[in-house]
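Why predict the complex rather than its parts? Because the way molecules touch one another can change local conformation, and only a joint prediction can capture that. The input here totals 652 residues.
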Amino acid sequence: MRRKNRWSACFSAGLMLFTAGIGLAQSKPKVAFVPQIVGIPYFNAMEEGGKDAAEKFGVEFVYTGPTDTNPAEQLRIVNGLIDQGVSAVSLSVLDASSIDPVMKKAKEKGVKIFTSDSDAPKSEREVYVAQARDQDLGYTIIDELAKRIGEQGTIGIVSGEATATNLNTWIGFMQERVKEKYPKITLLQPQFAGGTAQRAFQLATDLMTAHPDLKGLIAVASTTCPGVAQAIETAGKIGKVIGTGYGSPNTVRAYLKSGAFGFSVLWNPRDLGYLTVWAGKQLIDGKPFAESNTVPGLDQPAKYDAATKVLLLGPPTVFTKENVDQYKF
Amino acid sequence: MNWKQWLFGRRELTLALACVAVAVFFQFLSPYFLTTDNLTTILRNSVELLLVSLGITFVLATAGIDIAVGGALGICAIFVGWSVQGDWPLAVVVLIGPAIGTGLGLVSATLVVQGKIPPIIATLGLFGVYRAAIFLLLGGSWISGLPDRLGPAVNTTIAGIPLTAIYILFFYLIGWVVIRWVPLGIAIRATGGNERAARLSGISIGGTKFFVYGFTGLLVGFAACLYVARYRNVETSTGGLIALDAIVASVLGGTSVLGGKANLLGTMFGVLLVRLLQNGFVLIGVPSLWEQVITGALLIGVLILDAWAERRSPNYTRWLATR
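Output of the joint prediction:
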């Protein structure tokens, strides 16, 4: 009897410790981010920033996403995270048209859901953490390119997935800018390469064939940058066709140095991941965003637009042969 | 033989005519289509697909299928990329792709032969495993900006003929000799035509399957080598859905998914037609999304015509009578 009692005492003490452990682990709220695709340098950098922020602001960071740019798979993952009981979930939207049911589910379960990197503007998301304003990104690439080609000539566009909201929005602003400011520039219809360098190479080569006077090629998705740059090198058109795109310094470094790429436009994805987790923490704590937010660990204050619910990281950066070596992502 | 049989009875001829028709159509709309530069580009862009499709044609002939080739190509490309990056001896750089490819092909064969798993399931499973392996191997960072060490393998021309064209002719010639003139070819077709009858007549079914999957793996590995040589970049999506394109090309070319038939020349023209369409749509300024619609419709159309012709043929009636 005595013996049995001792064991049960041990057992209940252990059980108590165990529950306390779970309780302690749960006391740290979870903030999740679902990228468009895992395993590419861009989203890896966001993950890194997210981890840093999680450490700084005392939350647990969950990073998981699809292995190819598949919208259905992404929604499945977001659904799973909601069921697992994360406090806030953010995603870089692949398909804005199919996002509403999962948004509704999150609201019902009291999970803060918001977008980051790629938006679903018509949805009920709490906030959109934007890398830079889409307008600035679209305009900057056209302005920089126009400067280099003497404000006239034909420019081709090779994009990634045809359903990716962010890519299509940028293309929209490129078209707008050309229409308003550069009457002598012809912007061709965008071509979509999906996710492979091989298809981007093929499309870029074909565009150069179809338009022998082509002056510039814009690789909109980071996955299309290597293919487009390689096509310009292979066709022997370095100097005649200026390649550019939204590629991270690591992805485009070799092409900037070979001259196939004149420049590249992007923001720092590490900072974007950092800001995303900070925003998640604010939402969980129920703190509203101010018009200008000082985020500990970021150089520039993040501006917030209450009307569109957009939290902005800052203006885009232009990478060139000269400054690319300062960046390691 | 009436004119219909003459024209539609030989698939490679029908496809060649289709290619010509497509070419004329595109030339009509874009003056740059029928230029040496553009045609060379189309052929260059077909090399990897031609190699993989040759393997797939063999696999289909045994009534098998290999969906994992895209993943296998990615894995081979990673090792080729590393070998170029690490400045390994040239022999290793050249042979590592085909060696690993053959190994991966034999894994598929083991699952199909020893594991008795239907090929579509076995290779679908492997495709998932390979995709995950690619992510783990690359650890999220692409291999990019590789030195141009393998460049000569794809950019050299001998007496005006690109070296890549010689690779293609070499492998297709081997394929043709095997399927047409060697007992192994009969074994391949017999296995696909009627596996039980083939086994009863003393053909080694297992050995035949090991050969076709291994051979496909070898070709995939070689394709990976050329991929790295050309793009000097290995991204996580390398290989992608090349299996689907290869199956489309083979089936367009007259190889039956039900096995027993292989048409290598047809496969060649199948690849050419797919690439002509992809190229032409860009040249005439149509968004490339439409080309997928056309390829899909073409495939379904051909399969319907096949089924229809099969039903009207005397062989089919005879076959029905034995049921």
